[in-house]
UniProtKB/TrEMBL annotation:
GO biological process: protein insertion into membrane; protein transport
Boundaries of every Membrane insertase YidC/Oxa/ALB C-terminal domain copy: 369-562
This protein's record includes keyword Transmembrane: yes
Domain Membrane insertase YidC N-terminal: 86-345
Assembly, per entry: Interacts with the Sec translocase complex via SecD. Specifically interacts with transmembrane segments of nascent integral membrane proteins during membrane integration.
Main location, first listed in the record: membrane
Source species: Chitinophaga cymbidii
UniProt name for this protein: Membrane protein insertase YidC
């Protein structure tokens, strides 16, 4: 027998042995599960019909052990899963009697990036239930037991209600979950009722375990994870949040009004209405691979007062991160939408008070979002038109003064301090503000940053196509490389290319507004757009399209203003007339001149000492 034959027989023997062990293990598990079900069925029978079992000689699960694990809820340890559906115009929720909780939640008006139905909740990881303390330091998770389902009740206002009850072995004692939905609403009224359990449950906080998994919904998984966050609001209205990392934990040790598990465009929020959650502990995880964006495991403390009949009303929001919808809830849930954060947090007011109202108004006129962005761009350019005109006038004045500035630069050579003093004198005599071109640009910065926050966060743009862009909420791609180029990406965004080209053209037009003698100031306007090419390549197409339009309008306005509106000869004559007037120096100008004079004297003294 050759070497290969020996190896083959050894491998076959190993596979046979492995199969035998696996088969025995599966058979044992099946037998134990059957014995467990028989024990549960036996426990549910009247006592005079129960069959006794010999636990000393049999591994089956007996009634005593079942009672130990499930306490007075042992009768609910086994059952057959049954589902019922509550739905309205915006979502469809499938409830299950196992745990008495939602099993799947589908949003009817939305699809995934692949065109499939969009589920905010689906899969065994998702569960919402109480953790009830039992004897012997055991804990019952209500998601693991079977409830008794009630019939769906129809309300006169179009609402629908369903309840799930978990009975104990004592009459009149039960835990009940009640769910109600209203027409056209993303909210679910969720009430926990504890009846006759004052001797079973200790007075104090009861843990509500809420596990939720965010599955991939969008085209760009990276952006989804960057926007996967947990937000929360304390009872004193303080709001905070964190972005999901590989593993993160947050303990909220004071009353909490709501906790929101936010995806890029959707969220699930647990909201306490009449009485706040006593505290919360949030644990999150980001799986390293797969289509899971993030996982949230939150324990909410419900303050149980020990009453014989106790209710804790809540609301659960399953829906989109739509600013107007969230704001209408009047709990500041709209703060989960990133309209301005960090050092630019102030731009959220530009978005709230200007951009969003105008965007919504234009959305009522047309459904073409490419046209809406164009009209929005024109509106913004009209707002900043006075500042734009002022910057062009300043550029024209600097162009008129350029020959004199060149003479001063040639006269003083490397003595920048002397040149600076003479330059300031020239500006004062000519009535030119050297910051006239910079200030308008700085005033435009908040709007540029506001757009940077608004477009990637606007769910209205999700899956809206325009020209070659299939989805304005993510990057447009005209070619995919199949590999990743460092600092650039794995695709070519045409809107980003057009934005960069027009930025370079605009920099060329504005070269007269910068100090051409300074290499940094001279070349930075050309280098900066190229540096940003890799960053914006993965940005939302709506954003790069807006910047492209803004550049095109700026180029057109500059050409029109400088060609037909600004009279360079008139500006030159006015500057010459200003030179003949007595110079008026402001206090700030006097202090600046005095400081420059002192510095010049100090340099002369130091040169003499040398």
């Amino acid at each position: 027998m050759d070497r290969n034959s020996v190896i083959g027989f050894v491998l076959l023997g190993a596979l046979l042995i492995g199969y035998i062990f696996w088969n025995q293990h599966s058979t044992t598990e099946a037998r134990l599960e059957k014995a467990r079900q028989d024990s549960i069925a036996n426990l549910n029978k009247p006592k005079d019909q129960q069959v006794s079992t010999d636990t000393a000689s049999s591994p089956v699960l007996d009634s005593a052990r079942l009672s130990s694990e499930y306490g007075s809820f042992a009768a609910a340890a086994a059952g057959t899963e049954q589902t019922q559906v509550l739905e309205n115009e915006v979502f469809r929720i499938v409830f299950t009697n196992k745990g008495g909780e939602p099993k799947t939640i589908e949003l009817k008006d939305f699809k995934t990036s692949e065109g499939k139905p969009l589920f905010l909740q689906a899969g065994s990881f998702n569960r919402t239930g109480l953790k009830i303390p039992l004897q012997n330091n055991q804990t019952l998770h209500t998601s693991d037991v079977y409830f008794t389902a009630g019939n769906i009740q129809q309300g006169g206002d179009g609402s629908k209600t369903i309840s799930y009850r978990l009975n104990t072995d004592q009459p009149g004692q039960y835990l009940e979950y009640t769910y109600a939905i209203k027409p056209g609403s993303y909210l679910v009224d969720f009430t926990i009722n504890l009846v006759g359990l004052q001797n079973t449950l200790p007075k104090g906080n009861i843990s509500l375990q809420w596990n939720s998994q965010a599955d991939r919904q969008e085209h760009d998984m990276k952006q989804e994870r960057l926007n996967n966050q947990v937000h929360y609001r304390f009872a004193d209205k303080e709001h905070d949040y964190f972005t999901l990392q590989n593993r993160s934990q947050e303990k909220l040790e004071r009353p909490v009004q709501w906790v929101s598990f936010k995806q890029q465009f959707f969220n699930i929020t647990m909201l306490a209405r009449k009485e706040n959650f006593a505290s919360a502990e949030i644990n999150t995880k980001v799986p390293e691979s797969g289509n899971i964006v993030g996982q949230n495991m939150t324990t909410l403390a419900i303050p149980y007062n020990g009453a014989a009949a106790y209710s804790f009303p809540m609301e659960v929001y399953y829906g989109p991160n739509h600013y107007k919808t969230l704001k209408a809830m009047d709990i500041e849930l709209e703060k989960i939408i990133p309209l301005g954060t960090g050092i630019f947090a102030f731009v959220k007011y530009v978005n709230k008070w200007i951009i969003i109202p105008v965007f919504n108004f234009l959305g009522g006129l047309t459904s073409n979002y490419g046209l809406i962005i164009l009209l929005l761009t024109i509106f913004i350019r009209l707002i900043i038109a006075p500042f734009t005109y002022q910057s062009y006038v300043s550029a024209a004045k600097m162009k008129v003064l350029k020959p004199e500035l060149d003479e001063l630069r040639k006269k003083h050579g490397d003595d920048q301090q002397a040149f600076g003093m003479e330059q300031m004198k020239l500006f004062r005599s000519a009535g030119v503000n050297p910051l006239g071109g910079c200030l308008p640009a700085l005033l435009q910065l908040p709007i540029l940053v506001a757009m940077y926050s608004f477009f990637p966060s606007s769910i209205e743009l999700r899956q809206e196509s325009f020209l070659w862009a299939k989805d304005l909420s993510t990057y447009d791609s005209i070619y995919n490389f199949g590999f990743t180029i460092p600092l650039y990406g794995d695709h070519i965004s045409l809107f980003t290319i057009l934005m960069t080209i027009t930025s370079l053209i605009l920099a060329f037009y504005n070269r007269g507004m910068t100090d051409q003698s300074n290499p940094v100031m001279k070349y930075m306007p050309y280098v900066f757009p190229v540096m940003l090419l890799g960053i914006f390549n993965s940005m939302a197409a709506a954003l790069t399209y807006y910047y492209f339009l803004s550049n095109v309008i700026s180029i057109a306005l500059q050409w029109v203003i400088q060609t037909f509106i600004i009279d360079h000869d008139k500006i030159h004559a006015k500057i010459q007339a200003n030179k003949l007037k007595p110079a008026k120096t402001s206090k700030w100008g006097e202090r600046l001149a005095e400081m420059q004079k002192r510095q010049q004297e100090m340099q002369k003294q130091q040169s003499k000492k040398k």
